[in-house]
Write a structure and sequence with these properties.
By secondary structure, the protein is of the alpha+beta class. The chain has a single domain (7-226), classed as Alpha-Beta Plaits (2-Layer Sandwich). The chain contains six helices and ten strands; from the N terminus they run E-H-E-E-H-H-E-E-H-E-H-E-H-E-E-E. It has helices at residues 20-36, 73-80, 84-90, 127-142, 158-168, 189-196, and strands at 7-15, 41-49, 58-64, 93-106, 114-120, 148-156, 180-186, 203-204, 209-210, 215-226. The chain has an eight-stranded antiparallel barrel with strand order 1-3-2-10-5-7-6-4, surrounded by four helices. Strand 8 (203-204) and strand 9 (209-210) form a beta hairpin. It starts with 6 loop residues before the first strand and ends with a strand. The relative contact order is 0.22.
């Protein structure tokens, strides 16, 4: 089956080694459960760096009906008034990035034990053609590979993410361009990484995207819940 909606929150986090036990307990016993019962939320999953090469050790996805659910007034109020445990854990993040995305391509089929992501910022004038390429060629081919259970394209919605930043008191960057993230899900992270590595080493010159502008990471699934 496809994802549980057309919106997705993604978070990328790290904390100090001495804080990881509390961090993981908070995520698994409070945070994920709290989020999946928010308006529009349906399923959340979290992952850990599979091979020590990811820019962020932890990665999480939260599936929503539409991306605008991530700017729902009730959700915004929660962001302004987190639990004591949340405040304690989040104050110790050493790295944090938040993406609120529209799912524009969804070739999901169930779920697997690992995933790989490709993260990049395409130029505005090639977005339509690049999206068509992913839908009609690259991702369509990837999901046919043995062991792969799905692939999606998520496009960061800056209007929605900036509402979340405002609620949390985070400064809004100037001249920001939307990030795109491909997620390839497979039976394990090794299979997923093999598929994502089929992106050409020199990038996609036809779409003005150099290989150095595409950041890839591999993750293992460690926890998930849904309503």
């Amino acid at each position: 089956m496809a994802l549980y909606g057309k919106g997705m929150l993604m978070t990328f986090t790290e904390t100090l080694n001495e804080d990881e036990v509390d961090f993981n307990e908070w995520y698994n016993r409070e945070h994920i459960d709290e989020r999946v019962w928010m308006p529009g939320f349906h399923r959340a999953r979290r992952y850990i760096d599979a091979d020590g090469t990811a820019a962020f050790k932890y990665f999480a996805t939260y599936e929503t009906t539409v991306v605008q659910d991530l700017a729902d007034p009730e959700y915004m109020e929660l962001l302004k008034d987190q639990s004591d445990w949340s405040k304690k854990v989040m104050a110790k993040f050493t790295k944090f990035e938040r993406i609120t995305a529209d799912i524009t391509i969804d070739f999901s089929h169930g779920f697997g034990g690992g995933c790989s992501i490709a993260w990049f910022n395409p130029k505005t004038d090639v977005m339509d053609d690049l999206r068509d390429y992913f839908r009609d060629d690259f991702l369509k081919e990837i999901v046919q590979a043995p062991g792969v259970v799905g692939a999606i394209l998520a496009e960061n919605n800056l209007e929605v993410v900036n509402k979340g930043r405002q609620a949390q008191g985070i400064e809004i960057p100037e001249n920001e361009t939307p990030s795109w993230i491909i997620i390839v899900e497979a039976q394990d992270s090794v299979t997923a990484s093999r598929s994502i590595s089929s992106l050409p080493k020199d990038g996609l010159p036809k779409f003005s995207l150099a290989g150095s502008e595409i950041e890839t990471s591999n993750y293992n699934l460690i926890f998930g819940n849904n309503r």
